[in-house]
Amino acid sequence: MSKFVKGLIQHELEKKITQGNARDFIILSLMGISGTENNELRSRLKSKGIKLSVVRNSLFKKALKNNGMDEAVKLFEGPCAIAYGGDSIVDIAKEIVDCSKKIKVLQIKNAFLEGAALDEKDAVELSKMPNRAELLGQVLVLVMSPARKIAGCVMGPGGIIAGCIKALADKKEKEAA
User: CATH number of the domain at 3-129, please?
Assistant: First the structure.
């Protein structure tokens, strides 16, 4: 491969990183994956907005260094592919772990998350964390809980008073009849 072509590829990799798509990623090993499994994996990930790129380590390491991500450089050993994009890295990890149950040769090697390098175990643990939507739901439940209690306290005495008034009204109707 000529220097010019390598420069173009490195420039494209740097562009992926600087646009924010590949600032957080999971590093995979696709060794031994069949063509059919590869196509199934890529189409499944694409449907979730996750991109999968096989990278040339030397060029990607240079692109990482040029973007100040020196911590990620040491993660690239042997044949590597990176999964990035999607809603969050947690969603990527969940999809990859789910796919690895079906495709046995698919293996998570490492991950890079907000400037920190994660080993294989920590990368797999990401899949067990709640994603952004689940966290927002939990926050909403916590915010709404005190409001529900307040509404219950306000409605409780009001309901008792309304019940007493209704009972008095029913009693007066029976007396009048």
Answer: 3.30.70.1730
Q: pLDDT truncated to tens, each residue of the chain (177 aa)?
A: 788 888 888 778 777 777 767 778 888 988 888 898 889 988 998 998 888 888 888 888 888 888 888 888 888 888 888 888 878 888 888 888 888 888 888 888 888 888 888 888 888 888 888 887 888 888 888 787 777 777 676 666 767 777 778 787 888 888 876
Buried b / exposed e over 45-58, threshold 16 CB at 10 Å, is: beeeebbbbebbee
Domain ranges of the chain: 3-129, 131-177
Tokens of 3: 């220097």
